[in-house]
């Protein structure tokens, strides 16, 4: 039984929103981009170009017939110089299309999609290459095309941005507010959703004020700002749905089955722009921060730019980094090299020095119960750790380890510095493998 608590727990993980006031800077075109063919959860694309081909900004360079996927477009104009298979940031293998930029940024001729029906909207969403830009990387056109479309009554635009350090969504809310409203209106129209909420943590009061003003001026009666307490992990999809609607969404349950669709705020803004211009997803706003970065910034850059080039635009490394994260410190992933290219769903690159990155030594559990108390879903991190250490798959399953969303709150509060969320991740992998083996 989950969600027993009257109010979902959240933690004060520290905000460190150092770049919140920094206007987005547009990065000059790098010499080369490396465009991953695996930019979404689901099937990777197959390259549609070959070495030597000339491309423009927006040229379709990868696609697939597989259901769960979206196409990839070139983010620069130039020449395809290689198609290589490399190890990606997650440790798996990935195909990259390397494009040497000519610096001209010549664009394809884009035209706004003609949308007269819900299938037109879904088709356009797929063609745009949009995935969940808050980090989820789920193909948006699949999310917006649920089997029970008729039951959808609520759109939640997720502007919580609860992860420490990251401010790219905040900048979207300040610099592209009208795009957000246009995207939300179109989404609500084609979902036939009666209610739309822009959910924003209350540490972004200027964004809340901005939307309240625009919504009042434009008399958008069905769209509302929903302020959230600034606590981690209010922006996690299942937590957010509960906060806004009071509906409980367990792991494995589609929000659509509760009549809700959640869209990241930057995804929503992109859709507003795309419907107006037809320009596909080729660039991304990221927060680049961490104590190893000389000049932390919010940066708009071509997708496929390497981390190294992006950090060079921020003055380079202040000092040798010990850890580089794609994403935030709570749910982001460490990468093994700064030659890894930025993908659509990246919203931050954080580089930390040895002093910041070093993990404190783990000590024995003192049974204080703080991990359980911190969990938004009332889960039992210590029981998962015990079951994982004794390789007890049945116990992991019985204790519902699959409900864990790996938010890291339990690890964060643990005075013994136990890597509880990581053990949960490994425990989940163990259950999945056992299930796979059972199906063979
Ligand atoms: S990582 Fe999992 S167990 Fe730990 S607090 Fe988050 S949801 Fe709960
Ligand atoms: S927070 Fe850490 S020390 Fe406290 S019960 Fe959980 S694992 Fe043990």
Question: Which features characterize this protein?
Answer:
440 residues, alpha/beta, Rossmann fold, Ubiquitin-like (UB roll), 3 domains, 6-stranded mixed sheet, 4-stranded antiparallel sheet, 17 strands, binds iron/sulfur cluster
Shape: globular
Please report the number of helical segments. Answer: 14
Radius of gyration: 22 Å
- Please state how the strands of the largest beta sheet are arranged side by side: 1-14-13-17-15-16
What is CATH's topology name of the largest domain?
Rossmann fold
Q: What is the structural class?
A: alpha/beta
* CATH architectural group of the largest domain: 3-Layer(aba) Sandwich
Largest sheet entry: 6 strands, mixed
Low-pLDDT regions: none
Number of strands: 17
Mean pLDDT: 94
Bound molecules: iron/sulfur cluster
* Cα end-to-end separation: 30 Å
Account of the 3D structure:
With 440 residues, this protein is of the alpha/beta class. The chain folds into three domains: 8-16 and 111-277, 3-Layer(aba) Sandwich (Rossmann fold), CATH 3.40.50; 29-110 and 282-356, Ubiquitin-like (UB roll) (Roll); 361-439, no CATH class. It contains 14 helices and 17 strands. Helix 4 (177-191) packs across helix 7 (265-277) and helix 11 packs across helix 14 (420-439). It starts with 24 loop residues before the first strand and ends with a helix. The structure holds iron/sulfur cluster (2 copies). Residues 365-371, 382, 413-416, 418, 420 line the site of one iron/sulfur cluster (SF4).
Summarize the structure.
With 440 residues, the protein is an alpha/beta fold. The protein has three domains: 8-16 and 111-277, Rossmann fold, CATH 3.40.50.11540; 29-110 and 282-356, Ubiquitin-like (UB roll) (Roll), CATH 3.10.20; 361-439, no CATH class.
């Amino acid at each position: 039984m989950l969600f027993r608590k009257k109010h979902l727990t959240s933690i004060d993980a520290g905000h460190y929103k150092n770049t919140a006031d920094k206007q987005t800077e547009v990065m000059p075109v790098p010499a080369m981009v490396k465009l991953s063919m695996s930019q979404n959860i689901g099937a990777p694309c197959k390259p549609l170009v070959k070495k030597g081909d000339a491309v423009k900004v927006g040229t379709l360079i990868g696609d697939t017939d597989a259901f769960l996927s979206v196409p990839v477009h070139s983010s620069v104009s130039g020449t395809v110089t290689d198609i290589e298979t490399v190890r990606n940031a997650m440790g798996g293998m990935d195909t990259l299309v390397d494009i040497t930029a000519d610096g001209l940024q010549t664009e394809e001729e884009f035209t706004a999609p003609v949308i007269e029906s819900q299938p037109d909207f879904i088709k356009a969403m797929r063609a745009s290459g949009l995935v969940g830009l808050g980090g989820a990387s789920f193909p948006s056109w699949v999310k917006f095309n649920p089997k029970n479309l008729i039951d959808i009554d609520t759109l939640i635009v997720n502007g919580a941005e609860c992860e420490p350090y990251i401010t790219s969504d905040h900048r979207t809310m300040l610099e592209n507010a009208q795009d957000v409203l246009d995207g939300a209106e179109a989404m609500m129209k084609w979902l036939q959703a009666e209610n739309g909420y822009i959910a924003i943590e209350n540490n972004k009061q200027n964004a809340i004020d901005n939307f309240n003003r625009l919504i009042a001026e434009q008399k958008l009666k069905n769209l509302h700002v929903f302020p959230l307490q600034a606590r981690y992990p209010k922006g996690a999809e299942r937590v957010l749905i509960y906060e806004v609607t009071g509906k409980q969404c367990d792991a494995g349950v589609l929000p659509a089955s509760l009549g809700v669709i959640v869209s990241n705020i930057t995804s929503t803004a992109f859709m507003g722009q795309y419907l107006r211009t037809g320009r596909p997803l080729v660039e991304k706003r990221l927060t680049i921060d961490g104590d190893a970065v000389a000049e932390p910034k919010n940066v708009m850059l071509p997708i496929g730019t390497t981390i190294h080039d992006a950090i060079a635009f921020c003055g380079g490394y202040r000092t040798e980094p010990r850890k580089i994260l794609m994403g935030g410190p709570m749910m982001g992933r460490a990468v093994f090299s700064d030659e890894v290219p930025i993908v659509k769903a990246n919203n931050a690159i954080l580089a930390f020095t040895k002093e910041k990155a070093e993990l404190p030594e783990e000590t024995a559990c003192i049974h204080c119960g703080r991990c359980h108390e911190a969990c938004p879903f009332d889960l039992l991190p210590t029981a998962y750790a015990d079951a994982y250490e004794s390789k007890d798959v049945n116990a992991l399953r019985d204790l519902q380890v699959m409900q864990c969303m790996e938010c890291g709150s339990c690890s964060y509060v643990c005075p013994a510095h136990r890597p509880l969320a990581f053990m949960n991740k490994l425990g989940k992998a163990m259950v999945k493998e056992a299930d796979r083996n059972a199906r063979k």
